[in-house]
Design goal:
Order of helices and strands: HHHH
Low-confidence stretches: 6-12
Mean pLDDT: 75
Distance between the termini: 53 Å
Helix content: 55-70%
Radius of gyration: 18 Å
Length: 98
């Protein structure tokens, strides 16, 4: 079974993260920049230490095959984030417009 590179799977979803109905056209580049900056700060600043700490806790130094359980946290976090975005989008559509 051949694995699919993650970039091919995740690239189509990057453009749709900020719904166009939430921001105006002139502020879209700045909003996108702030969004990507924030996501990268959290991903590199929190994600890597959490995976490293989980690797230490699972004893990856003694048994490297345990690393797969630590790396399973990443897709689970993505699923949790997608579920939260979906639940938030349902409430966003229910609000009356002014």
């Amino acid at each position: 079974m051949e694995s699919i590179p993650l970039g091919r799977v995740s690239a189509p979803f990057i453009g749709g993260m900020i719904p166009p109905c939430l921001i105006t056209l002139p502020s879209r580049p700045c909003t996108s920049g702030i969004y990507f900056f924030t996501v990268n700060i959290f991903a590199y600043g929190i994600g890597a230490p959490v995976i490293g700490k989980l690797n230490d806790w699972l004893g990856v130094a003694a048994n490297p095959m345990q690393m797969r359980y630590a790396l399973l946290l990443c897709p689970l976090a993505c699923l949790l984030a997608a579920m939260m975005l979906w639940m938030g989008s349902r409430k966003l559509g229910a609000e009356p417009t002014k």
